[in-house]
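User: Could you check the structure of this?
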Amino acid sequence: MWPVLEDYAGQVVPISYHTWWPSSSDKFYLYNELAQDERVGDYSGFAPWTTSLYTPSFRFDGKYVRDIDSTFATYEQWALWLRSTFDSLLAIPSPCRFDIDYHHFSPDSDSVYVGFDLVVEDSIQFNSTLRVGTTEFQYPASPTGRWRHVFRDWLKDDLPDSVGWHFGPMLPGQSFRFDLAYPMGVYDPTKLSTNIFLQVDGSRKIQQGWDAMPDPAPSAGVADRGESVILGRNAPNPFKGSTDISYSLASAGKVRLGVYTLTGRLVTELVNESAGAGYHSATWDGKDRYGKDVAAGVYYFILEAGDAKEVGKMIRLR
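Assistant: Sure, the predicted C-alpha cells are below.
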C-alpha cells in the first residue's frame, strides 16, 4: 500500500489507528487507549460491536470499503484498485477549503501552533464536525518499523477532543477562524504531523482534509541580527497564568510594548519608557489595564521603538 501512497503525497493522508486486537500489549494502542477507543468506536460502535472490526481494516473517505485480502488475489490487483479509488475520490470537488496561516513548533514552549480559516465555497447541507489530531510519521522500529502517520492524540486539554467542533449547514462565503496550540509532549517534532479534517456526521464522508509537519520556529531568545529592534516570542505559549515577552534593542530609546485584541483594541500596556540597548523582557499576567482577567483566546503584542514596529501573537488558555 505504501508505494501507492507515495505517489499521492500531498493529496491523500493515511492515518493508522490501533485497537486492542490482537494483543492488549500493543504499544501504539496503550500509548493513548482512550483516544484510540473513541475513534475506533466512531466507526465500529462500542461493545457489543455492530460491525466486525479486525486488522488490517481500511476505510476510504471516512467510509469502510474493503481490505487487501478480501477480494484481490495479488498486491498488484489491490494497488490498481487503490489508485482507481483515490482518483475517483479526488475528482469530487470539495465544498470548502482550509487556508493555513501558520504552522510551526517552538522549542521554547514545547508546543505546536496552527492557525487557519475554514472557508465555505459551496453550500454544505449536512451537519459536520471539524477534528484536529496529531500523528507521528515513520515511527521507530518497534514493534513493526513500517507504520506511517501513527495516530497519537486529539487536541485535548483546553481544546475540544474527538467530539470536535460541530457545524450545521453552511453557506458559500462563510468562514470560521481557528488559532490552536497543543503540547508536543514526548513526540518527535521532526516527525510530528497535524491532521485537520471536516467530516459529515452520520455518513463520515470527508469534506476536506489537510496534513503537514510543522516548521521549526525561531527560539524565544533574541540575538543581534543587525536590526534596530528584535521582538522574540513569548514563553510559555500558550499560557494560563503569565507569560514573558523578550525583545532586544540595538540602541537606547523610547519603547512601547502593548497587548491588543484581534480587533486592535488595547488590552494593557506593559512597557512605555526609555530603555537601554540590549536584551529586555516584560511579563504579562493575563490582566487588562484595569486589573481584570481577560478571556481565553488569541492576543497580539506590539513593540514600537522609534520608526520600528514588531508584532507577535500569543494564546491564553482558560
